[in-house]
Design brief:
about 325 residues, TIM Barrel, 9 helices
Length: about 325
């Protein structure tokens, strides 16, 4: 979710004051540009190693284009815990182990070191989940241990940080060896590789940034809105009765993949916080207000299933069952 720049110090103080009460209740709530680039991979069968038998756990995905798969993703993936500004119950490795392959996270400059990128929820004084580098190292280790998996990262750039700083951080983590670079940019929605091609090439990490991407400087970090549209976030309607495009403004769905922000908030004194106690219903595979119901609404509007459905508390409900159903598995 994008950084809410308008949150005031008074509101932050109010949330921090309320944390013990809310947590206890049942409704708890670069290096130079050139050195930050990696070689592009052409998905040519003659250049690929042996084809995997399963891709992201399913043989069907090996021959299916990335743009023809629905991923249920973890919204604000690094913010783990019982407090109202935290969106997940389990850590990054556990999310990956349970089948999540799409991770979204907010980044900000560290208030203590402007050369360091931190994972912070709106403000580093409100929620600081550590450095972006450590987050990337965790994902790299998981990719090292799971050679037939493709993972996507969607990062937000709340402080308008230079793309070169992102490139430097990725490079220092060692994860760039897995980073995918499209053969053309932007890549047509019909030209994305299959998961089998990603895996055979060794380029198993796809990276997007919401604002500030520049592929001429850092070629493995893609501009989110060159490839996706998003529905509204901070939704407080538990029926999720809309699938209208929120960003980019006035965008068309034609030629873009779709991200559905399917996480429910509640309003407390004008501050929206995750509806933790509703996660089982919100993350259900079917039924009113479920992942399946909103995905069906979106498919009716745009003629195809969403590519990404972002959810809070991915360990609750039926997110993997919903993902499998949307992919016809």
């Amino acid at each position: 979710m994008p950084c809410r720049q308008g949150v005031t110090r008074a509101v932050l103080s109010l949330i921090l004051l309320l944390q013990p009460v809310l947590a206890a209740g049942s409704t708890t709530l670069v290096v130079s540009a050139s050195s930050s680039s990696v070689s592009a991979h052409t998905a040519n069968p003659s250049r690929l190693s042996s084809a995997p038998s399963k891709c992201n756990g399913h043989s069907e995905f090996c021959t299916r284009s990335y743009s023809n798969i629905t991923f249920v993703g973890s919204h604000d993936a690094p913010f783990v815990g019982p407090l109202p500004q935290q969106n997940q119950n389990i850590d990054i490795k556990a999310q990956l182990d349970m089948g999540i392959r799409y991770l979204q996270a907010q980044t900000h400059h560290s208030p203590l070191d402007k050369k360091t990128l931190q994972l912070c929820h709106t403000s580093c004084f409100l929620e600081d989940a550590g450095t972006l580098k450590n987050f990337l190292v965790t994902i790299k280790k998981w990719l090292d241990a799971n050679p037939n998996e493709v993972v996507t990262l969607l990062l937000t750039n709340g402080d308008s940080v230079s793309i070169s700083e992102f490139g430097e951080t990725f490079s220092s983590s060692g994860i760039t060896k897995y980073a995918y670079v499209p053969t053309t940019n932007p890549l047509s929605i019909s030209d994305w590789p299959t998961l089998g091609e990603f895996i055979s090439s060794g380029k198993r990490l796809v990276v997007f940034l919401d604002y500030g991407a520049n592929t001429k400087q850092v070629n493995f970090i893609q501009d989110e809105f060159a490839y996706y549209f998003e529905t509204a976030y901070d939704v407080t309607d538990p029926s999720f009765s809309s699938c209208s495009i929120d960003r980019p403004p006035k965008a068309s769905a034609t030629g873009r993949m779709g991200i559905v922000n399917h996480f429910l908030d509640i309003d407390i004194f004008g501050v929206k916080v995750p509806a933790r106690d509703k996660a089982g219903t919100t993350n259900a595979a079917s039924g009113k207000g479920s992942i399946g119901a909103q995905a069906s609404l979106c498919e009716g509007l745009y003629g195809r299933a969403p590519n990404v459905i972002l959810a809070d508390f991915v360990d609750k409900g039926q997110v993997i069952k919903a993902q499998n159903a949307l992919n016809g598995l």
